[in-house]
Amino acid sequence: MTDAAETLSAADQAARTSTEAGPSGVAGRLVLIAGATSASGEAVARSLTAAGARVVAVGTRQDALDALAAAVPAVATRPCDLADAGAVANLATDVHESFGRVDGLIHLVGGWRGGGGLAGQSDEDWDFLERGFRTLRNTTRTFFDDLVASPAGRLAIVSSTAVENPYPGGANYAAAKAAADAWVRAVAQGFAKQAPQSAAAVFVVKALSGLEGRLGDEVVGLWAEPATDVNGRRIPLGPSPSRNPERMES
Ligand SMILES: NC(=O)c1ccc[n+]([C@@H]2O[C@H](COP(=O)([O-])OP(=O)(O)OC[C@H]3O[C@@H](n4cnc5c(N)ncnc54)[C@H](OP(=O)(O)O)[C@@H]3O)[C@@H](O)[C@H]2O)c1
After folding, report:
1. How do beta strands 246-247 and 30-34 pair?
2. Cα→Cα distances 37→26, 108, 215, 218, Å
3. What is the pTM assigned to this prediction?
4. Is 173 a catalytic residue?
5. CA 7 to chain CA mean position, Å
6. Which helix (H) or strand (E) holds 183?
7. How many alpha carbons lie under 13 Å from residue 236 in its C-beta half-sphere?
């Protein structure tokens, strides 16, 4: 575990500047990356810290978190099994005491299971995928009040083109991702009613490999736009800056 105290204090300085400038931009915001140790997590952590955000990176494997902290020294790390609701509640207490209220939740826990046509959509694979979805339910339920209270709350997940174009061998995966999309739409509706300064969005990609840096830029960009322009959007993630968001159906 690292506490990244020096860097957070530099970011606190940025927070004061950001607050003085009004509720725009990511500088000084506290962003929790749920499932931060993949290549995409590292890229998002790098982009956020470079933009002046304070970042708490979460995963289950301490060695992977240590490697992330070595690669992106500005991040604070916390080990937590986000599928365990009690552990997420303890994480929230720790984060609040150590850093304060969360302004952003970037949820990257995923993973793929599938193949073998429709008959190959096993219960074991579904259990794995449902566990990933549970981490989204746990983190959003736990940090929703933070995101509502924030002057610029943001939630984002990375979904898949498989939701719109499912195929038999990926039916379990597409169904789990569709559930996550629907969950984020529900959060977006909650923000629209309770916290119009906050926003929830879904990035949509076929394959992330090679697009990690782009994802990092897009995550930072969530704070560059008014919440009403971001809330409830599905944002295709491509190699070029083709931000052409579509409003999620409600
Ligand atoms: N990769 C792609 O091509 C692709 C395509 C479409 C959509 N996506 C989506 O994009 C997102 C990021 O994908 P990715 O491939 O970069 O990463 P990933 O393999 O889905 O994993 C992301 C992170 O989740 C963490 N994690 C897993 N279970 C956890 C738990 N119970 N509690 C806390 N952390 C947990 C892992 O760390 P630990 O092992 O240390 O826990 C890992 O750092 C996912 O939502 C994925 O479904 C990816």
Report:
1. unpaired
2. 21, 9, 14, 18
3. 0.91
4. yes
5. 21
6. helix 171-194
7. 12
CA distances from residue 181 to 48, 98, 193 in whole angstroms, order as listed: 23, 31, 19
Kind and range of the H or E run holding 102: none
d(CA 36, CA 34): 6
- The residues spanned by each domain of the chain are 5-247
CB-based contact 195:148 (threshold 8 Å): yes
Nearest CA to ligand 1 atom 48: 208
pLDDT 10s digits, 215-243 = 999 999 999 999 999 999 999 998 765 45
Which residue out of 173, 183, 191, 203 is catalytically annotated?
173
**Cα distance between residue 126 and residue 119, in whole Å:** 13
Q: How far is the CA of 45 from the centre of ligand 1 (A)?
A: 14
Token duo for residue 121: 């959509």
CATH superfamily of 5-247: NAD(P)-binding Rossmann-like Domain (3.40.50.720)
How is residue 55 annotated by DSSP? Answer: E
